[in-house]
Automatic annotation (TrEMBL):
Its EC number is 1.5.99.12. This is cytokinin dehydrogenase. Belongs to the oxygen-dependent FAD-linked oxidoreductase family. It comes from Carya illinoinensis (Pecan). Keywords: Oxidoreductase. The lineage of its organism: Eukaryota, Viridiplantae, Streptophyta, Embryophyta, Tracheophyta.
Length: 516
């Protein structure tokens, strides 16, 4: 095998062709249960962002952790090969790519799904390559159970979101998805397979959670479950003043369970009839209309929508649901003429973005570039952020949702690799741009430039913020991102992936040259 691996020192085209031949031979020698494409095909060099592309050497479809371990060990024996786990490729900036390296298609892993009960608590063991939408369906339909913490969109993999955080409107109560796993199986950058948890191989467990794929490839996760509700009342209410919106959102995320909604999110939108960015983006049902005469003359160019949801069971009396929901809404200060609500099943609610995906695919905007930006901003800076960013830089909208909602820091485990701003309450800002391909020129470049302007504004104003789903090009910038967590991150890297083989698309560490 070493003879094959010696070929993987890259140079010119002749060597590239030779690489492809040797790549196939290498994988025959590895005797995998899964299979491999040499050279890599289609999706392996692309992602949802559509801003970057790469040419991987091969696309590996592992069938299980053993295959993953064999491939990583082979890469470790080569002089310079890297390995990127690819979840569903829904990154924006090439994070799941490996230029001239090996891309591991985690979705090809053998199906693994088992509900286990430990001391009366239910968990589900799932493959790291499972899609959350499949986990939802199997847990709810088969067992009446469901994970507690979600992302808005569920066409993402378990390993992919756990490598970042996994945030949605339930995170204020249960923490991000990284706070809701009890155990992982991880293949390290040395090709060793470990089961890890809070008490067993805990450095690897906490390192891998939010670890941007740097310490290992998650091949299995044990996710905490709770009884699934049957139905959800999904409600949107409108605020013209930012301070009123944040006061109510923060009130809701700091109440105890039973005294608040089950889901709290929000978004900023443009005070106009623009079909994508304005009033029509608020109603939840085509039969509902937004009445702009209800907006006071004093309102600014950007106004706000608080989005909440209340879970209930089919056997509850409808009047009880109305009573509880009205009591909760009664404590809020929105404009009562601008309230929208629908009742839908729990699964329909959690799969709501899939409907938007179908729509976007039909309009051609799902496959166009997505220069998205996600930030966490401390509560103490959020009013200024609104003034400078929403009310100024983004006052015309972004062609998609501008999410903003509060999260609670103490629900996040600081032993994980995730990096947060300092305040106990901080906001997630998600600028989810959907734009058709611009026939006149490189629209995506202009939007990337606008993202830079926003980040620069945050720096210039001295805001306490962190990028979520971060993307940097130099190690200096990564050091700044991690701040006082950088030393721990580097120490974990030295232990679990000393040659820096894993997740090269994050551009945090460079592959160490291994002399054969
Ligand atoms: P990929 O993009 O394929 O991979 C992401 C990173 O993780 C890469 O570095 C990759 O190498 C690594 N990785 C992948 N699998 C593994 C594994 N098994 N083990 C170790 N490392 C691995 N995020 C939220 O938190 N909340 C949301 O509501 C939300 N909504 C989204 C909606 C859409 C439409 C999209 C496109 C993204 C959304 N995201 C959201 C972001 C999402 O969490 C990230 O894109 C994340 O990377 C998961 O996507 P993926 O499974 O496709 O992973």
């Amino acid at each position: 095998m070493i003879a094959y691996l010696e070929r993987f020192v890259h140079g010119n085209d002749v060597e590239s062709r030779q690489d492809d031949d040797d790549c196939s031979s290498l994988f025959n020698a590895l005797d995998l249960q899964g299979n491999i494409d040499c050279p890599a095909t289609g999706l392996a060099g692309k992602d949802f962002g559509g801003l970057y592309s790469s040419k991987p050497l091969a696309l590996v479809r592992p069938s299980g952790a053993d295959d993953v371990a064999r491939v990583v060990k082979a890469a470790a024996l080569s002089p310079s090969l890297t390995v990127a786990a690819r979840g569903n490729g829904h990154s924006i900036n090439g994070q799941a790519m490996a230029d001239r390296g090996l891309v591991m298609d985690m979705r090809s892993m053998d199906d693994h799904f088992q509900v286990v009960r430990i001391n009366d608590t239910a968990f589900v063991d799932v493959s790291g390559g499972a899609l959350w939408e499949d986990v939802l369906e199997r847990c709810v339909l088969g067992f009446g159970l469901a994970p507690r913490s979600w992302t808005d969109y569920l066409g993402l993999t378990v390993g992919g979101t756990l490598s970042n955080a996994g945030v949605s409107g339930q995170a204020f109560r249960y923490g991000p998805q990284t706070s809701n796993v009890a155990e992982l199986e991880v293949v390290t950058g040395k090709g060793d397979i470990f089961v890890c948890s809070e008490t067993e191989n805990s450095q690897l467990f906490f390192g891998a959670l939010g670890g941007l794929g740097q310490f290992g490839i998650i091949t299995r996760a044990r996710v905490l479950l709770q009884p699934a509700p049957d139905m959800v009342r999904w409600i949107r209410v409108v605020y013209t003043e930012f301070e009123d919106f944040t006061r109510d959102a923060e009130f809701l995320v700091t109440r105890r369970e039973g005294d608040s909604f089950d889901y709290v999110e929000g978004f900023a939108f443009v005070n106009s009839d623009d079909p994508t960015n304005g009033w029509p983006s608020v109603p939840l049902d085509p039969n509902q209309a937004f009445d702009p005469t209800r907006i006071p003359q004093t309102a600014g160019s950007v106004i706000y929508c608080l989005e909440v949801a209340f879970h209930y069971r089919n056997n509850g009396h409808p009047s009880t649901v109305d009573r509880v929901v009205n009591r909760l809404l009664g404590r809020l200060g929105f404009d009562e003429h601008l309230k929208f609500e629908v009742d839908l099943s729990y699964m329909e609610f959690l799969l709501r973005v899939k409907r938007a995906e179908e729509h976007a695919k039909a309009n051609g905007i799902w496959d166009a570039p997505h220069p998205w930006l996600n930030l966490f901003v401390s509560q103490s800076d959020i009013v200024d952020f609104d003034r400078h960013v929403f009310k100024n830089i983004l006052k015309a909208g972004i062609g998609g949702p501008m999410l903003i909602y509060p999260l609670v820091r103490s629900m996040w485990d600081t032993r994980t690799s995730v990096v947060l701003p300092k305040d106990e309450i901080f906001y997630i800002i998600a600028l989810l741009r959907f734009s058709p391909p611009d026939p006149k020129g490189p629209l995506a470049e202009k939007l990337v430039a606008q993202n830079h302007e926003i980040i620069q504004c945050c720096i210039n104003k001295g805001f306490d913020f962190k990028l979520y789903l971060p993307h940097y090009k130099s190690q200096e910038e990564w050091k700044g991102h991690f701040g006082n967590q950088w030393t721990r991150f580097v120490e974990r890297k030295a232990i679990f992936d000393p040659l820096a083989i894993l997740a090269p698309g994050q551009k945090i560490f460079s592959r160490m040259i291994h002399h054969l």
